[in-house]
Design a protein that fits this description.
By secondary structure, this protein is mostly beta strands. Helix content is about 5%, strand content about 50%. The chain has one domain: Jelly Rolls (Sandwich). The protein is built from two helices and 26 strands. The protein starts with 6 loop residues before the first strand and ends in a 9-residue tail after the last helix. The structure holds manganese (II) ion. The site of manganese (II) ion has 5 residues, from β5 and β10.
Length: about 290
């Protein structure tokens, strides 16, 4: 008999708020700090649930702002997102693509709707995750990985039940393209009604799933719905997700915790208040690079 990993809780995101004028997001954490470091190495998740933006001559999004000490991971589901940073990186991602940006020692970037998409307007859906860096890598030089849909690992589920796209880590021997500093699994799963995905993830890894669309039965017991965030206990067992309707979409995140103090302040995530002060100072002194790019 399969032993299942217990569900610790099922949570909703915070009420929607705008990030700049381009991202209408619900924050799942650290909002209210209900999880503390329970989800380490994941430190923030903003979900822009499907939303239709009207056509706009002005490009919607967030202007130049800094980051240091962690990585931003942007997963596009609908619409087209553009990125530009002062380290010379530029990219446009669309449905199925992911940007994995290492802020490391510091950079400035802009995140916005791609110009033609902004002009047309339309359905927009994305997730942004912040992944912490361990002390040893916080000052790593900035890095940018553009991971296109075609590069993702893909595992087809038994009986035509759906598929698992592997962004990072490994599912059933299929590896994802993302290079990470600490061990992370990130799976984008699509299920048909009755389709089953079974994930074997290390007990010590903090593990959760967000239901983006449809509904799913977890571990042959609890049924969860669109917008639900399922956190699993760190106990041995498999995680089974069964689609309750066609086109059910789930993001599974699992990572080895980083057991270090976190001080998170605005766009910086460091280990101590002194390092946060240093980050603000370095930013103001222009040490994170040209603010006009
Ligand atoms: Mn940013």
């Amino acid at each position: 008999m399969t032993v299942f990993r217990k569900i610790e809780g099922v949570y909703k995101g915070a009420p929607f708020h705008m990030v700049g004028d381009g991202f209408r997001v619900s924050n799942y954490f650290p909002s209210g700090n209900r999880f503390g470091q329970r989800l380490s190495p994941f430190i923030l998740m903003d979900y822009n649930a499907p939303f239709v933006f009207p056509p706009s001559e002005q490009v919607r999004g967030v202007g130049a702002h800094p980051h240091r000490g962690f990585e931003t991971v942007t997963i596009a589901y609908e619409g087209s997102i553009e990125h530009h940073d002062n380290q010379g990186n530029h990219g446009i991602i669309g449905p199925g693509d992911v940007q994995w940006m290492t802020a490391g020692s510091g950079l400035l970037h802009k995140e916005y709707h791609e110009r033609e998409f902004a002009k047309r307007g339309g359905l927009f859906q994305m997730i942004q995750l912040w992944v912490n860096l361990p002390r040893a890598n916080k000052m790593h030089s900035p890095r940018y990985q553009e991971l296109l849909s075609s590069q993702m690992g893909r595992s087809d589920l038994p009986d035509g039940g759906g598929s698992v796209r592997v962004i990072a880590g490994e599912f059933n021997g299929i590896k994802g393209p993302a290079q990470t500093f600490t061990p992370i699994h990130l799976f984008d799963i699509e299920l048909k009604v009755g389709g089953k995905a079974q994930c074997s993830l290390p007990t010590s890894f903090n593990t959760a799933a967000l239901i983006l669309r449809g509904s799913a039965r977890i571990n042959e017991s609890q049924v969860v719905h669109e917008g639900d965030f399922v956190l699993f206990e760190n106990v041995p067992g498999e995680i089974q997700i069964e689609g309750q309707e066609d086109h059910t979409i789930i993001l599974v995140l699992s990572g080895e915790p980083i057991d270090e103090p976190i001080v998170m302040h605005g766009p910086f995530v460091m280990n101590s208040p002194e390092e946060i002060a240093e980050a603000f100072n370095d930013y103001q002194m222009g040490k994170m690079g040209n603010p006009n790019f």
